[in-house]
Amino acid sequence: MAEDLFNHALNAALRKRNITYNLKTLQKECIQSVLEHKDVFGMLPTGYGKSLIYTVLPDLFFIHQQLSIVSNITPVLERDTSIIIVISPLVSLMKDQEIAFNTMGIDCAYLGDMDDKVKLKNIENGLVPILLMSPESLFSGKWRNLLTNKVYQCHLSAIVIDEAHCVEEWGNKFRTDYYRIGELRSLVPKAVILALTATSTYSSRKTIAHILGMNEYKLVMGSCDRSNINYFAQKVSFRLHDSFHWVVSSLRDNCEQSPKTIIYCRNIKSCSQIYLYFLSELSEAAYIGTPCAKNCLFAMFHHSTPDKNKKNIIENMRKNSITRVVIATTAFGMGVDIPDVRFVIHWGASRSIQGFMQESGRAGRDGITSTSVCYYHPVDTAKNSADEQMINYCKTSACRRNILVQHFSPDIPQSNTSHPCCDNCIKECSCCDCLMLNKDFITDKEDNMLCEIDGIKPYRQVSSDQRNAIQIDLEKMVAELAKEHDHLSVLSVDILTHFSKQMISDIVNNIHYIFEISDLMDNFVYERRIADMIMNIIDTQLD
User: Fold this and answer.
1) pTM (2 decimals)?
2) Of 317, 313, 297, nearest in space to 305 by CA
3) What's the Rg (C-alpha) of the chain?
4) In this protein, which residues make up the domain named Helicase C-terminal (predicted)?
5) Which of 194, 272, 337, 374 is most open to solvent, judged by the fewest CB atoms within 10 Å of its CB?
6) Are 388 and 372 in the same domain?
7) What DSSP state is assigned to residue 422?
């Protein structure tokens, strides 16, 4: 009887908002447990539809109670209306959700810089069913006091912590209010806690639950295995052409029909280097129509990107527009829902396996076969550059998929699939599909990565006067290059020219090892024109 009542109430709530989507098993399990007044920790795969879980809750609480009364069943929740609070990490995510909820006819408010007096009054009276808040705003005087009024004491049904892994990752660092969310248990003791994330180990779940005050909770866990994603990883040099020639070729040949791709970099400098490499390689072919940013096939996205530009990039990637590749830091992350991304490329290993899982999981959210490629450098897998699990993922000769599954879902049976799966499994398969799949992203060439011993590397004598002269000439060269980019004055000279003082110093300090263009392009620069200019300076001074 209870199951029938739940299904009846759920279907009514979905119909009310014209939601035709069939809820998945784990979504229903989370919703039903919350409705039974149980705290829930939901670990669901990326792209599973976590937001839909709390979308239906306000209506569902009310409808379920009304049906319970009609059926002469004592209602589990003695409330005639329902409010939920959703705690999210990013303002941009909350603003997007506010628009999405309001479009669906669900009254929702982001409680940031709220100054709409009518809306404020409705919020105080409990007439807005979904409130979106950051941990910081939650504990500001105005909104904290809101929770103590009678309306919220009676009718706040659930507190949802979206992207719950941030509680552990950020709470003890730069966003300490995450560690205070557990205080809500005493402020609104009737409210259920629903924690949602895609990536969490047993240890981190235990920590997060403790911080949130979830002493007893229902664990709803799905496999983190994204079966439609193929995984590739390779140690590479810093020569961008070796790793990205296939992306450039696709843009040149297919233009706005090129598959959508996200390239994740460890820092802004790497983003700018790849961006300028794409510009150099494609030239006028980088644009569809008039050469300008909005007509470019690729874009750069990081925390310093103006908000207006960020919004345009996200919107363009969501639509079937000109933007096909986004070169980004982790700023292009949570809340970015682009279902048809076909490639996620990491230029440098992620600093944590959790971050890698989140980022690679942005590929193929529409269920169509997609690819994760991790190009890592020896420095990325050095001690303290990445966590142990990420290093293991990069270096393993075993199945990369199973490395991920066993870390996040150890109770899930390991996959026995060798076709297709990852570059290591593909080596065991000789079919044409696997051979073709492997050839674009992974090369057979071993990179020496500057790891030769000094004693066996050819070198030449270079005097201190010659080094000083080369340094002066390189600095002059950088100044001349910067003049070519005056129209891009918003960017620093380092980014525009791919040269910093450290780069010049590195070249000068290793000048005795540099004999030809390849020595420069293997280890210091990626653009042939720049390498030619440097080599000309060296040859002139050392002749």
Assistant:
1) 0.70
2) 313
3) 27
4) 247-416
5) 337
6) yes
7) B
